[in-house]
Design goal:
Blueprint (H helix, E strand, L loop, with lengths): L1 H17 L13 H7 L3 E8 L12 H7 L8 H6 L13 E11 L3 E4 L1 H4 L4 E5 L5 E3 L1 E6 L4 E5 L22 E6 L7 E12 L9 E4 L11 E3 L5 E8 L10 E5 H14 L5 E2 L2 E4 L3 H6 L8 E6 L4 H5 L6 E5 L2 E2 L6 H6 L6 E8 L2 E8 L1 E2 L16 E3 L4 E4 L3 H6 L7 E6 L2 H6 L6 E5 L2 E2 L3 H8 L8 E7 L2 E7 L8
Length: 481
C-alpha cells in the first residue's frame, strides 16, 4: 500500500513539474533610492502674469470712498459682504498666479516643463529641492507638443536627470512621478504603464504614454521615471470627470520632448513635416467596402491640393498602412509619425488602394502649408432614386457655391433608407465618391450604383461644411424590411 502511495506521489510531482510556469510577481519595488537620486533635480515652478492698475478716482471723491470703506482693507471680508461694502474699484485686473513642476536635464541650468505651465507668464520662479530660488528665462515654448524650455543661472553645476528612452517601455512596467501637486513640493507617486500611443486632439503629434500614476494639478511638467531613475516622459494631462486624478494620466514621451527642446534651443521654434492629408478611422464596414481583411490603417478622406501626398499620387479613399516602415494601425498613429520629421524629409508611404498595396515616395511639406480647392460645375437638376436609399440631385453653379465649392459630385435631396440615416448621411451632403470611384455627375452616380449589391458594405466619400469624410454602411434589401 505504501509503495502505491509513493508511486502516486511521484507521478503527481512529475506532472506538476512539467506544467508551464505561470507569470508571477517577484515583489513590490522600492522607490527610495530612485527618489534620493532624482529628487534634487526636480523643481517647483511658480508663474505670475502681472495684472493692470485701474485709473485713480479724482481727489474730490476720496472722502466719499473713505466713507464707503473702499479704502479700508482692514475691514473683514465678512463685514464687506454683510454691509455690501465693495472692493476697491480702482484696483484693475489682479495678478494671476500659477504653479507646476519641471526638472533640470542639463547641469548648466536648462529645465524642461509643459508649455501650459508657463504660457503667458511674465515672471517664472524656480524653487529647487534644497529651497534655493532662481528667476528663469523662457528659451522657447511649443503648444503643439506642450513642451517648454527654461534656463536658470547658477554659480555651480546643478543636479540633473538622465534622459532615457520610451520606445522599449511596455505596458505593466513600474514607473514613478515626482512633482508638486497642489503646490506640495517633492511629492512622489508610483504606478505602472497602462498603454502607449494614446492621442489627444490638442496635441495630435504626441503619442502619449498612459499610466495609472497619480497626477494632479501642479504635477504638470514633472518627470515620469523608470526604475533606473531615467526620464521616459513628461507628465502633461489627466482624463477626469471631476478635475482630479481617477487613474488615467498621460505623459509626453521623452523622445518628443528632446526633439522639441533641441529645436527650441537652436532656432526658437519647432518645424514639423506635413503630409497634406485629412484622415479618419477605418470601420468594419469601411474595411469590407475597401477590400481590407480587417479595420486597419488611416483612411484618406481628403488631400491638400498640390500638397506632399497629392504630388506623390495618394488619393482620397486610399488607406495608409505604414509610414517609413512604421505600421499605422489606426488613424491616430499617423500624425506623430509624420510630425516627428522636419519639412523636406523624404519618406515612403504604403497604402491599400482597391484591395492592393502600393508604395509612394513623398517629400514632406511644412506644417503651416495650405492648399486650395478646385471648383467644378454641373447644370443638370434631374433626380434619381437608387439602391442606396437616397434621392440625389446634380449641382448647379449657384448651389455649388452655397455648398462650399465641392469638386464634382451629386447632392443628397432626400434620405429614404434608415441604414443611411443611422450611418450619418444627411440631406445637403455631397457624394464625391462611391467605393473609391469618383462621382463626376448624376449620370456617373447612376452608373456606379447599378453595380452595388444589397447587404454589402458601401463606402461614400461625402462633402459637408467644407470638409470631406468617408461614411460606410450596408444598404439592406428592401424585401428584408
Amino acid at each position: 500500500m505504501n509503495h502505491r502511495v509513493t508511486l502516486k506521489f511521484v507521478a503527481l510531482l512529475m506532472l506538476f513539474l512539467s506544467m508551464p510556469a505561470a507569470a508571477k510577481v517577484t515583489g513590490l519595488p522600492d522607490f527610495t533610492e530612485l527618489v534620493e537620486i532624482a529628487g534634487p533635480a526636480v523643481v517647483n515652478i511658480r508663474v505670475t502674469k502681472f495684472g493692470t492698475r485701474g485709473p485713480r478716482l479724482s481727489d474730490e471723491n476720496d472722502e466719499q470712498r473713505g466713507e464707503r470703506g473702499e479704502d479700508h482693507p482692514e475691514i473683514p471680508e465678512f463685514f464687506r459682504r454683510y454691509f455690501n461694502v465693495p472692493n476697491n474699484p480702482q484696483s484693475g485686473e489682479p495678478d494671476r498666479m500659477g504653479a507646476g513642476s519641471g526638472f533640470i536635464y542639463d547641469e548648466t541650468g536648462y529645465i524642461l516643463t509643459n508649455h501650459h505651465v508657463v504660457a503667458e507668464a511674465d515672471e517664472i520662479i524656480i524653487r529647487m529641492a534644497d529651497r534655493r530660488e532662481f528667476e528663469a528665462v523662457l528659451i522657447g515654448s511649443d503648444e503643439s507638443s506642450d513642451i517648454a524650455v527654461l534656463k536658470i543661472e547658477a554659480d555651480e553645476k546643478l543636479p540633473f536627470l538622465r534622459l532615457g528612452e520610451s520606445e522599449s517601455v511596455k505596458a505593466g512596467q513600474w514607473v514613478a512621478a515626482i512633482g508638486s501637486p497642489f503646490n506640495f513640493e517633492q511629492s512622489v507617486t508610483a504606478g505602472i504603464v497602462s498603454a502607449k500611443g494614446r492621442t489627444n486632439r490638442a496635441q495630435q503629434y504626441v503619442p502619449f504614454i498612459q499610466t495609472d500614476v497619480a497626477i494632479n494639478r501642479g504635477n504638470s511638467g514633472g518627470p515620469l521615471l523608470n526604475m533606473e531613475g531615467e526620464v521616459i516622459g513628461i507628465n502633461s494631462w489627466i482624463l477626469s470627470s471631476s478635475g482630479g486624478y481617477i487613474g488615467l494620466s498621460f505623459s509626453i514621451p521623452v523622445e518628443v520632448a528632446v526633439s522639441t527642446a533641441k529645436q527650441l534651443r537652436e532656432t526658437g521654434k519647432v518645424e514639423r513635416g506635413l503630409l497634406g492629408v485629412i484622415v479618419g478611422a477605418v470601420t468594419r464596414e469601411m474595411a469590407e467596402a475597401l477590400g481590407l481583411d480587417r479595420p486597419v490603417g488611416a483612411l484618406v478622406n481628403d488631400v491638400t491640393d498640390d500638397g506632399s501626398a497629392d504630388r506623390a499620387g495618394i488619393k482620397p479613399g486610399d488607406v495608409i498602412l505604414a509610414f517609413n516602415d512604421a505600421p499605422v494601425e489606426t488613424w491616430n498613429d499617423l500624425p506623430p509619425l509624420v510630425g516627428a520629421n522636419p519639412p523636406g524629409t523624404e519618406a515612403k508611404v504604403r497604402v491599400s488602394r482597391d484591395g492592393k498595396e502600393e508604395v509612394f515616395d513623398v517629400t514632406l511639406d511644412a506644417l503651416d502649408g495650405e492648399g486650395g480647392t478646385t471648383v467644378a460645375d454641373n447644370g443638370s437638376t434631374q433626380k434619381a432614386e437608387n439602391v442606396l436609399g437616397l434621392v440625389v440631385e446634380s449641382i448647379n453653379s449657384d448651389r455649388r457655391r452655397e455648398l462650399g465649392d465641392p469638386e464634382g459630385g451629386v447632392v443628397i435631396a432626400e434620405i429614404e433608407s434608415d441604414d443611411a440615416w443611422r450611418a450619418g448621411l444627411r440631406p445637403g451632403d455631397v457624394i464625391l465618391m462611391i467605393n473609391n470611384q469618383d462621382v463626376e455627375d448624376l449620370d456617373g452616380f447612376q452608373e456606379l450604383v447599378e453595380d452595388i449589391e444589397p447587404n454589402r458594405a458601401v463606402a461614400l466619400r461625402v462633402w459637408r461644411n467644407g470638409t470631406a469624410n468617408f461614411i460606410a454602411y450596408t444598404p439592406r434589401d428592401k424585401d428584408e424590411g
